[in-house]
Structures are given as C-alpha cells and as structure tokens.
Write a structure and sequence with these properties.
single chain; alpha/beta; 2-enoyl-CoA Hydratase, Chain A, domain 1; seven-stranded mixed sheet; three-stranded mixed sheet; 10 strands; Enoyl-CoA hydratase/isomerase family protein; ClpP/crotonase-like_dom_sf; Enoyl-CoA_hydra/iso
C-alpha cells in the first residue's frame, strides 16, 4: 500500500475514491429519512432538528474500536453527510455497563487491544480504512466523484465524557468543536503500545505545537480538560449536568449558513491534499511494520 500511495496521481485517486459513500449508507438513507433513527450495529444514529447524533454503544469494552465499530461508524458518518436535513454531526459515547464505569458515559478507549492480540484487527479494513474512510470523510467530506452537487461536508461536534484515548483522541482532531466534561482527558498511548497513532502525528502539532505534541505522542502525556493546556484540545469544558445543553447550543451555532464555506477554507491551509497523501504513504509503511511486530504482540497479550 505504501508504494501505491507514494505515487502522487494514484495515491490522490485512491484517497478520493475512499471518500465515496458506502453502498450500505446509500441503501439506508430512505429509512433514516422516514424514521429519523437507525441502529447500525454498535452505533445509534438519530436526527433531531439540524443535528445528526451518533452514539457509540460498544459498551462492555468502553467503546474500544474494532472492525465492527469501524464499519458501522463509517456508515453512520455517510448518512449524516448524505441527509440534506442534517447540518451538523454530533459524536458521543453511550452509557456503559462495564463494571468500572457502569452508568457513566465514555467517549472512546481507542483500539480494542484484546482484538489486536487475537489477530482480529485488520491492517486494511481497520488501520487504513478508518483513516481514509470515516475520519477523512469527517475532515474533508464525501468525495465529489459522481456527485452532481460536488463534495459534501459538514461540521462535527464531539462530546467527550470520561476520556478519549488513542483512536478516540484521533477523532477529536478532525472535529470543529470539542466539548468535554470536567475531568475528562485526552491520551494517545500508541507509542507505548508500539504503533503509530493514525494521522495524529500530522494533525496534533498544529493544535498544540510541536513540543507538546511530542510529549503526548512520544511520552504518553495525558491532558485533562481542566488543566491550562487542555484549552488547546477542548473548546469548552462543562459540568456533566450541563453537557446536553452545551451540545444543543453548539449545534445551533454551527448550523449557520457560512460555517461550511469557512470550514473548507480553513482545511485548505491546515491539511492540503498533497500533505495528506504524502503522510499517508509513509504511515501505511510504518504501521505495517509495527502493528504485528513481536514487541507489540507481547504488550497486548498482557492486556
């Protein structure tokens, strides 16, 4: 895969094609438009007013990401982007039944390490697909290829309860508004686990600066929503009881007509297409070398 993405024309074409909506999402769109609610495996999607609310329900593993969640998540993201009534996407974790967090919401525990240890995390369908599938669709919208109206993109709001670890933290880097409850935290432990944290190495430095990005990625620094540096990652910090109201207010603000145009202009500067392709070509190589290496498998076997 590294060789294909390293070719500028071929790599750019692959990235564009991976931003096409999935056939499953296209087939489910009429049902969403009729009922305003869908359950797609571990993901629940509901339209309320201008908002498309995606709630993760991988409950027993604290919303850890696995192949099934990735597939459902991409379908739900596609539906938010395809439904013309929805103006803003909202991401939030469901209420847990895990013993330690029972009754509390959790955003995401990142990659499911038990699945990784068991060989159930795939290189193509998980590690590459999530980056150029739903995450890139959130960042840059659906591809213009074959669409009469051109590319379709919308702003995204993340509501972080408890924590956003690993892959969950990576999602925040493409969201336009991140609301966190007091005491929630951000963490990217991939280097300690022995892998590369997706496109975080590309996106995190522009948010927090190179020095702090190195502390988070290389040394595993955890950033709390209530510390001063947390303001670089969390736009708004609220009491847990105020989270629902804060989300609704953000949806109203980000539904404004000019938000998408200005969002698009910001992305042109922040993440040019060629920078994304070049980074991803190297990422495909580095992650392939790391994901099933002996030290990684030894670490996850102890989880």
């Amino acid at each position: 895969m590294h060789a294909w993405f390293a070719l500028p024309d071929v790599g750019a074409d692959l990235i564009e094609r991976m931003r096409l909506p999935t056939a499953k999402a296209v087939a489910l769109l009429p049902e969403l438009q009729q009922h305003d609610r869908l359950r797609i495996g571990p993901v629940e999607l509901e339209r309320r007013g201008d908002g498309g609310y995606l709630t993760f329900h991988n409950l027993s593993c604290l919303n850890a990401e696995d192949d099934a969640l990735i597939d459902a998540f991409e379908t739900a993201v596609d539906l938010v982007l395809l439904d013309e009534r929805i103006k803003v996407g909202v991401l939030r974790g469901g209420v847990m039944d895990h013993e330690r967090y029972r009754g509390r919401r959790v955003f995401s525990a990142g990659i499911n390490l038990r699945h990784l240890s068991a060989g159930q995390i795939s290189y193509l369908d998980f590690l590459l697909r999530r980056e150029l599938g739903y995450i890139n669709k959130m960042a840059h919208g659906l591809s213009a290829a074959g669409a009469e109206a051109g590319a379709v993109e919308k702003p995204w709001i993340a509501a972080v309860d408890s924590f956003a670890i690993g892959g969950g933290a990576q999602i925040l880097l493409v969201c336009d508004r991140v609301i966190a409850e007091q005491g929630a935290y951000f963490s990217l432990p991939a280097a300690k686990e022995g892998i590369v944290p997706g496109l975080a190495n590309l996106r995190l430095p522009r948010l927090v600066g190179a020095r702090m990005a190195g502390q988070i990625i290389l040394d595993g620094r955890r950033v709390s929503s209530t510390e001063t540096d947390g303001r670089l990652l969390f736009d708004e910090v609220v009491h847990p009881a105020e989270m629902d109201a804060a989300i609704e207010q953000a949806v109203e603000r980000f539904s404004a007509a000019a938000v998408i145009a200005n969002r698009r202009m910001l992305r042109l500067l922040q993440e040019p297409a060629e920078a994304l392709r070049s980074y991803f070509a190297q990422f495909a190589l580095e992650q392939a070398q790391r994901i099933y290496s002996a030290d990684v498998l030894a670490k996850v076997a102890r989880v």
